[in-house]
């Protein structure tokens, strides 16, 4: 695992966020957000951005965007540049989001992802379990349809203790 500096971001970090966004998401599925969508979301209260910067790098290589709604937090976006993957940065970002969500009073952390996204391995290892499914929620560029699955992780429980 690489040494990573985790920091809270602001709208001033939009260029770094878009650099990661544009490299990270598979364009076949239209999952990446544009600049306006990110800035619009960040202008809302109870939304936070976390950046991950390897200590041997100047630029952030990953980010997570999350939102709190009453006692539930949602991981809206998680992305790591392809060149920096497989070094634990994604997991570090998930844990940073969980920690902040817990500190803000969230009882669970939710997320929605396209079924078939390899990120499921990361989420399962981080203590998430499937709680729902939305049929045909995503449409690929080739018009193929893909279900969305909803995952949740209770907060306050160390995932290392979950069997
Ligand atoms: C998902 C993502 C953030 C993971 O970033 P990362 O820094 O590579 O994650 P980690 O190194 O912490 O990986 C943790 C584990 O999950 C696995 N994993 C993560 N993403 C995976 C993927 N796409 N396919 C297969 N396995 C994956 C890794 O193999 C690793 O397991 P290991 O520790 O047993 O080797 C990155 O692949 C990404 O940006 N993907 C595109 C955007 C995306 O799909 N985001 C999630 C939307 S819900």
TrEMBL record:
InterPro entries assigned to the protein according to its UniProt record, in alphabetical order: Acyl_CoA_acyltransferase (IPR016181), Bact_Acetyltransf (IPR050832), GNAT_dom (IPR000182)
Gene Ontology MF terms: acyltransferase activity
Enzyme class: transferase
Protein name: GNAT family N-acetyltransferase
EC number: 2.3.1.-
PROSITE patterns: GNAT
Alphabetically ordered keywords of this record: Acyltransferase, Transferase
Start and end residues of each N-acetyltransferase domain: 4-156
